[in-house]
Give the backbone structure.
Amino acid sequence: MNGGRRLRAALAGLLTLLVLAGCGYGSERVDTGARVAPKGPKLSVDEVRVGYFPNLTHATALVGVREGFLQKELGGTKLATATFNAGPATVEALTSGSVDLAWMGPSPAINSYTKSGGKSLRIVAGAASRGVRLVVNPDRIRTVADVKGKRIASPQLGNTQDVALLNWISRQGWQVDAASGRGDVSVVRTDNRLAPSAYRSGSIDGAWVPEPTASLLVAEGAKVLLDEADLWPDGQFVITHLVVSQRFLTEHRDVVEAVVRGSVRTNAWINSRPGPAKASANAALRHLTGKELPQKIIDAAWPSLTFTDDPLAGTLGAQAEHAVRAGLMRRPDLTGIYDLHALNTLRAAAGRPAADDAGLGVSRGVAPR
């Protein structure tokens, strides 16, 4: 009887894990196919755990892990990784201590920092900018005015692209209830992995999505109606940055500095060798998901992305304001969300100007809360 109960409990637990994974909110520790093993003196921990998404906006992590740039900087400290399909799951892992650092978008970072009263995380470096487009069915939508009354997908309620879409809709003078997505435009929250099939079935008329989902939809016959970069000064806005839990930063700053060095080195390599970088990112995707992107998709998506260690802090405040206007949050206090000491030390050593924290960082003398 006891054995039967244990078996039933184990099966129930397995079913729960499968359901969570199917919903896209789970994570798993993965063999990343990294080419460099731990070697040399250890830093202040035996192992550091980092999280990221298996998509092109997280190519800094994909390439940095696979090519060994992160592990080389960590020396004898082992690099362990976890992949996620949604920002909330990444934040939960960071908060619980399941991961120590993570690449994530601005909206999850803002939400976590605000809800914790400024105690959850710090942004320590940039990673990527741009790479988000509004793509639509050209048979149903030919102009911006045609979007009214249509069904437009975003990846998830309150995620970075959802906020951008709601803000854009508001600027057209249209009304949408942020929570339900109902209004002059129907905002349909759709996992990026499901967006191509939703488009094929006709259940959505378009989508405001990051790469490579935008290019995958274009391959299905969609057309680009709007590149989000066109809405920003200089065409740049943060899409992915590197964050760390405040506890880990306080206790293991040497490890954080090593990961930042690895991230900076990775972006420099990506920008200097785009061909090998695309191949490396695609190989990492194949290893993590079992499927690589068609070459025509990655070739179409890659030029729309900018890989930069500058966190573009000035755009973070604007994105927070967009969420406020959409009714997704109250006006947040983001003072102290940045700690760019390690990043700017590297930039100074390379003769580069300091990355600006837009007055929102401990680097400006703000005491940690």
